[in-house]
Amino acid sequence: MKPNAQLFKGSLTTIILKLLQEEGRMYGYEITRKVKEASSGTLQLTEGALYPALHKLEAEGLLTVTVEASGNRPRKYYSLTPSGKKEVANKVAELQAFIGQMQSLLNLKPGIG
């Protein structure tokens, strides 16, 4: 079953922050590749979704960007700021709570309520 794009988009910030927490720093293509690998190819993170999310996180002070030469072109690496490191735990906890609430709702037995 293909994942719902809206559900994925709503979790994107958490996914990005968690990946950067685990990996330390990453560039955009690495993030898209890691999401695809981790989801066995079922989630395809497009540049059109990724870069606005990265820019928003940077504007919020959760990410820092460093530019390094890679071959003949610059590459932007994203990493967590101290605020970003704190926010990872908050976002993951929020998502886990939401998933728990959805499981409770969806596991209702017939005839209850």
From TrEMBL:
Q: What Gene3D superfamilies does the database record attribute to this sequence?
A: Winged helix-like DNA-binding domain superfamily/Winged helix DNA-binding domain
Q: Which residues form the Transcription regulator PadR N-terminal domain?
A: 16-89
Q: Where are the transmembrane segments?
A: none
Protein name per UniProt: PadR family transcriptional regulator
Give the source species: Flaviaesturariibacter amylovorans
